[in-house]
């Protein structure tokens, strides 16, 4: 899983001098944000649940490796950062760690050898977790996770990024405010949703923009830029907040279904979001999924409709194609006419795509995603969209929606020029508005994705 690691650019900007000054100040760990009795024990299952909510397994498990034994390479422009072994193995994992050491990693970004952790580990968000959740997680790792002896390759970035102490200065800039969750003015359900989204769920790591120092710009609801959209590699992580955010037009019920199953009547989750659904969100309870959905809908004080207790209860639906709406009418009429002098892009759409995504561009709910208003189609960077056309894509199977959906790629069938015409047509059909795609853009994506064979994206 490639992550948000141009963050490291920050170090250059900061300069080593400032870093040195701070580096010699002794480290003061943030104390627990809640007092628990020494013999406090989490109810059974809670620690594992917190691990799912925080998606620890995704980053801390290597491809084909043992669960949580680390060694997953996270690519950054400056080199690969290897995730740590967080199984309770005493030599190579965190089996000897105290709770205080664990808290320092989660809250202050300080690792087992007192080293500053790279913010590839999302402690910018985990620091809002409650002490009871951290403790449940710590106990779970120490007593329920299988210890695995696995010496993870050391991360060695190029100078000056190998100077981990520089991150002291970075943290000083990036970690604003107290390491404590601040509940919004709302009811219990909204507050629970806010807690999960801001804390363990680390949604801001992808969905908030970045500051000049590559820190998350907006880690809490009270920050103006919180969840207003970010980039992960070259993928757009769409805005979840504000009037242009597509999810604000979905019902809370539809948002919950998307999180739980990676699909709803409007969209499917691809790329990094498919992984979030597969490894984390699908394990959340209906109550927590609803809480997150209701929170997301009410972030700016909008009223939210009540949600049914059961998430995605309707089962895989096969609904008839929806007719084109006002904005989509002209494009649907053009496609239906199938006239010989239709633009090349429209012709290619009719021949290759309309069977599933329909002339209305609306697809079929929960099966074939809508291309009208689609965040990936309209992405600032068209590469992920072009990659889907060339290489296909798939939606993971989840317990609530076991059916695995896949779309084939068209790399063998369409030339670069054809893909460019087709993509430009879709980016401007049915009321969509986005820049055109050129044949040379397509050629670059073709070379890049075929070299990488995109195994991670296809899942
Ligand atoms: C987005 C990827 C990502 C996620 C999600 C993630 N981690 Fe990490 N974590 C990392 C990376 C990368 C490192 C190593 C950073 C470094 O070497 O500076 C790390 C380091 C750590 C360390 C320090 C280990 C040591 O030996 O110093 C601990 C503890 C840890 N993670 C626990 C967790 C837990 C618990 C979760 C889930 C709540 C979690 N991580 C989720 C990427 C992640
Ligand atoms: C590792 C990065 C990452 C994390 C973490 C992440 N997302 Fe996403 N999210 C994405 C990307 C990328 C997309 C776009 C997916 C696509 O184009 O198919 C997305 C799409 C979405 C969408 C659909 C938006 C639309 O307009 O189609 C919702 C809703 C969403 N995410 C909610 C969340 C929530 C809630 C969390 C936290 C629990 C979260 N995401 C965590 C990367 C991430
Ligand atoms: C046989 C049916 C079928 C055909 C034909 C088809 N698709 Fe798809 N398409 C799907 C399915 C199923 C998905 C959902 C899989 C996914 O997104 O992971 C999908 C997903 C997509 C997505 C991702 C949408 C999102 O929200 O992430 C895009 C973009 C797309 N198709 C465009 C096209 C284009 C362009 C063509 C023609 C070249 C085409 N499709 C042809 C079935 C089809």
Automatic annotation (TrEMBL):
Q: What is this protein called?
A: Cytochrome C
Q: Where is this region: Disordered?
A: 437-459
Q: Would the keyword Iron turn up in this protein's UniProt record?
A: yes
Q: Name one GO molecular function term.
A: iron ion binding
Which keywords fit this entry according to its UniProt record? Cell membrane, Electron transport, Heme, Iron, Membrane, Metal-binding, Repeat, Signal, Transport
Say yes or no: keyword Electron transport present: yes
InterPro entries assigned: Cyt_c-like_dom, Cyt_c-like_dom_sf, Cyt_C_IC, Cytochrome_c-type_DH, Membr-bd_ADH_cyt_c
Against PROSITE patterns, the record matches this protein to: CYTC (PS51007)
Segments passing through the bilayer = none
One GO cellular component assignment for this chain's record is: plasma membrane
Report the locations given in the UniProt record: Cell membrane
Record's superkingdom? Bacteria
Q: Which organism is it from?
A: Comamonas terrigena
Binding-site positions, heme c 2: 203, 206-207
Name the positions where heme c 3 binds: 353, 356-357
Which Pfam families did the record assign?
A: Cytochrom_C
Q: Which residues bind heme c 1?
A: 56, 59-60
UniProt cofactor(s): heme c
Q: Which residues are in the Cytochrome c domain?
A: 42-145, 188-300, 340-430
Q: How is the cofactor bound?
A: Binds 3 heme c groups covalently per subunit.
């Amino acid at each position: 899983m490639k992550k948000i690691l141009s963050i490291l650019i920050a170090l250059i900007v900061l300069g080593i001098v400032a870093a040195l000054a701070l580096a010699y100040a002794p480290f003061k760990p943030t104390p627990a944000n809640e007092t628990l009795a020494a013999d406090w024990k989490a109810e059974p299952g809670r620690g594992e649940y917190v691990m799912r909510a925080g998606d620890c397994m995704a980053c801390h498990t290597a491809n084909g490796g043992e669960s949580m034994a680390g060694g997953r390479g996270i690519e950054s422009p400056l080199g690969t950062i290897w995730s740590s072994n967080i199984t309770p193995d005493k030599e190579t994992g965190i089996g000897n760690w105290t709770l205080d050491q664990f808290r320092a990693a989660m809250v202050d970004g300080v690792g087992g050898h007192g080293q500053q952790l790279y913010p590839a580990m999302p402690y910018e968000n985990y620091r809002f977790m409650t002490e009871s959740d951290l403790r449940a997680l710590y106990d779970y790792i120490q007593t329920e996770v299988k210890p695995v002896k696995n010496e993870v390759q050391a991360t060695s970035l190029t100078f000056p990024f190998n100077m981990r102490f520089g991150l002291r200065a970075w943290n000083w800039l990036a970690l604003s405010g107290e390491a404590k969750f601040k509940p919004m003015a709302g009811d219990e359900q909204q507050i629970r949703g806010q807690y999960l989204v801001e804390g363990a769920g680390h949604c801001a790591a992808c969905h908030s923009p970045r500051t000049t120092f590559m820190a998350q710009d907006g880690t809490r609801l009270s920050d103006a830029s919180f969840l207003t959209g970010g980039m992960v590699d070259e993928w757009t992580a769409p805005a979840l907040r504000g009037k242009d955010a597509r999810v604000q037009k979905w019902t809370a019920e539809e948002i919950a279904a998307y999180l739980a199953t990676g699909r709803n009547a409007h969209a499917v989750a691809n790329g990094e979001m498919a992984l979030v659904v597969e490894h984390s969100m699908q394990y959340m309870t209906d109550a927590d999924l609803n809480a997150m959905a209701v929170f997301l809908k009410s972030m700016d004080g909008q009223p939210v409709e009540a949600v049914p207790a059961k998430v995605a209860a309707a089962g895989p639906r096969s609904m008839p194609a929806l007719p084109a709406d006002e904005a989509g009418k002209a494009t649907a009429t053009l496609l239906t006419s199938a006239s010989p002098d239709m633009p090349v892009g429209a012709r290619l759409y009719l021949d290759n795509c309309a069977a599933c995504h329909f002339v209305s561009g609306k697809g079929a709910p929960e099966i074939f995603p809508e291309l009208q208003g689609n965040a990936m189609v309209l992405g600032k960077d068209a590469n992920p969209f072009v990659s889907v056309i060339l290489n296909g894509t798939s939606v993971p199977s989840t317990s609530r929606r076991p059916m695995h959906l896949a779309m084939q790629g068209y790399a063998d069938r369409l030339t670069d020029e054809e893909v460019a015409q087709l993509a430009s047509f879709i980016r401007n059909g049915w009321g969509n508005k986005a820049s055109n795609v050129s044949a040379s853009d397509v050629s670059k994506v073709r070379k890049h994705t075929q070299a990488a064979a995109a195994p991670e994206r296809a899942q």
